[in-house]
Amino acid sequence: MPSFINIFRFSRLFQSRRASQDSPNSILAPTQPAAQALASNSPSLPDQPLPVKSVKKRDGNRPTGCRKHQSAVHDYFISYRVDRSPSDKAQSGLAFALHTSLEAAGDRLVAGGIRVYLDRLCIREGALWEEEFVAGLRGSQAVVLLLSRKSWDILVKNVTNGKTDNVLKEIELAIQCQKKIIPLCVKAEGDADHFDLRNENLSNLNSPNFTNLKQAVQALQTLPMIPVDSHAPQLAFYRVLSALHPAEISTQSLSGVPQPLVGYRTDAARMTQMLGSLAQSGHCILTGIGGIGKSTLAQMFVQFATAQRQLSTSATAADDVFAGAVLYERVFWINCRTAETAVGSLRAGFGTTDYDKTLKAFRKCVSGSGRFLFVFDGLDDTAVVDGLFEPLDDRRGGFTCGGDFIVTTRLERLPGGAFARAIATRSAAPAASIIKASLWSSEVVRAYLLDRCPALASAEHSLDVFDRFIERLGGYPIVIEQLVAYFNMKQPAVGDLELTLEAVLSDADNSRQTSLVELVRLSLKGLEETVAGRMAIMLFGCIGWLDGSRLQPQLLKACVKEIRKLLDEEDGEVDVLVIFKRLSTAGILRQVSVDGTYAVHNLHQTIIRDMAEKVTTVDTSGAYNASCAAYLGVMARTREFSTQQADMASHSQFLAGPPDRLPPGAESLLRLQMQCLDAALDRFFSRLESANTKLQRLVEDAAATLGTRQHALVASVLHELGATERRQGRYVDGMRHLQEALDVRVAVHGTRVHAEVAATVGAMGLIALRQGRYEDALAHFHEALDTTVAVFGTRVHDEAAAALGGMGGVAVRQGQYAAALEYFREALDITAKVLGTRVRSEVGNLLNNMGVAALRLGRYGESSRYYREAHDIFVEVYGTREHASVAGTLHGLGLAAMRLGDFEQARAIYTESLVTQEKVFGTRVHEEVAATLRFLGEAALAQGHLDEAFGYLSESLDIKVRVFGTRRHGSVAKSLAGLGRVAQLQGRDGEALGFCREALQTYVEVYGTRVHDDVAEVLRILGGVHLAERQYGSAIECFEESLAIMDKTAPSHSDIGKIKESLRVAREGLSET
User: I need a surface site. Which of 320, 433, 942, 1056 has the fewest CB within 10 A?
Assistant: First the structure.
């Protein structure tokens, strides 16, 4: 920097001993030991007589902040020595590069951004530059100190000669202000190594001039030194960032990240290159052919960047960057083989099974700022993830994305699309972020083989033969790894191995692929000799049809069970783990997580799926059928899928593929069953339109393939279709399809006493309940319960619990709350016994229902206890308060507060619920947010705040219309009815009539009947509007119909007395006119 502010200005700016009292170079003396001052991380400053905002310009005006940021507050102040020589701009360039990286990172990694004070950008024209950067340093939380050998030598020379030194002054000022100091040890061009202040010996500097210098250096020597090359400043970026904004990561945040192969080569140079690319642009793209090691590089980077392991080499600055450093708080590993696997990966990361909620959570995360790393693995078709980004893309230059991105792809460049535009907005030169994974050199292959194959290293091989073999083999990583597996299995002589592979090694045009196929053949040949080995080969065949990136042990064990049947092997004769080990030893299967999940490379899958006859004599033609049977077995359920089953959902897409992709021996029935299961999973994940489309097509396809609709599989498809349409609010269509499913199942099984019949009857009860046909619903639930007990001989079954829960729902609608409570209680007891625990979401849902029943009974304390237990269960199950189910329990607690007349408490609870939902969904445009707004409107209405109530209810209505895409929906009608009630109380009878009439018409269309308690409620409101307008005849008609409906649907409902009272008033009014 220019010459430092003189001693008298500093004595005016700071309360300290004058510089002349100590030495010509002392501007202040620390009021506490220097090391203690430097150790303090507090951004607070000691009291000063003249605060920053009071520093004046020459014209006497108060500054509003620095020139660049228009702010007096900064995160970092960069202290460096201004280069005097035009030929040496190392520190100036380094300071500018660091400033640029930090500020760019603020947009994507730190909420609120990062402001960096750099003198040449921040000092305002016409201002006293000395006072400007003093204020800049005082207003910064941390001081980044650039120290090089040349800079240090100049400092010592200046102090020796009694001259003022700029850098020393800044160090002393930072100590006085108790700033966090971050020393960067610079290696400039021509330097042998990084400058390290800890190695400087000050014992021979005895002049009084060096007193303050020694104090400062002693303090700095206690701090960690961050090495940085002047030509690669980005390598220090994350350490500087973490010094002020530290990141912490939990094991749970890494649960979806596969572990790299044990013993695999650590490519420190590539790690460094990736780190630099991320620091500069926020993304790096690893490109290369399949099997070149792109995914493994990304896996290793994640481990280093989250302090899971350290680099083994010390030849690169990346060691000092990674060692013990945590760069990210959350890592999302996204499997990009298909759009479904991509969203499935995110589901696990965001802890939800709902498709739309997953997308909204991802978009909220990626459109904000945070210490996130997104790894898009295997992105060979960008259309797979374009759908994730399109709603965020205005197509006028893209958008800014939060977090850092790593992409692994076989593409040499990303084609146009929303994802490519997102990448392009991160860097002016996105091509600079492309890192091409390359073949290994002969030297690397040689060292790696000697390290991974101990027998090879100890054998008496001719070095000439060994080196020639390596040269001919090439450096294709997946081939090298397969060779390691084969060699460790058989330990052949190198000369023999060369002769064995002679044909493929001579194939110059296709040696990589053919070498891999031949090595796989040799590895499998060694397995063909034993029963366990043959079973392992068959398991390999099964894996060829699954999602090879995530192979759960439960599914693999089920495949082995089917393989035993094919090979007529006695159950349990060969241990399953032995089979897994055989396949792992052959270099095919590898464990990728501590929970026992395995993975296989897609090139291996292609070989066993499409070239099985070339690599083994074992007949694997039945592998597809065995995979389907195994998958259907582990996914079997009477009601909904479990969390463990949801984790295996991705396999359905591969097994339910188009007929032309499946093997000739694939059984048609199994294929149809897989397609039905795939659609059922879509429904489970709330991809309702996708599920409906698949099921509509599958009904006809199944009937045509099987030659009849009178088949158990057709009934299953119809059942799934009806259940999907219930979720969509299409009750008439849903009931029609369920009725056909029921008829087919009864015909196929020859009886109604069957578990599948019970399931369909129970599903019909749910639709009847939503339609307001309570007696029909109750009949369905009773039949489902009786059938379940008859089939299984007990009520302790999840289908029985579901039927009892349905009966409880009917009782609530009919106002029989005590009976409802008993139904729910028994369903809860059964569910807890079936599951073996109360800590499950199913239990939480039943407790919520019990809270509703107790609330209606006026047992508000009991109701609150149910809601509170449900709340605690959901928090434990999902590991966070920020979950939709947790917010749902808050609704119940708010209602309890409402009933107790504590409207302020109710509004506080609803507000907490709203905040939670906005965090979970990333938007207010969501059905559950709309429900919370309706509750807030009810609370405001109870307090008499009519305008506020109308505002909440109006927003609730608008959101529902946007979410559902129509006004013809029961939930929309509920908001319309609420608006009608508020408008009536406001005296706006015309508007009230409009709202109520639309609500009434919507209810009738949706439910297909007027006999529903929601219809009765809107008729009651409508009657009140007519009564206020003294239209007594119309009011009487509304009240009488409302009363008649309630007598049918809920004869003991507490509102019946209120309707009768309104009817009496209307009749009296009519008689008086």
Answer: 942
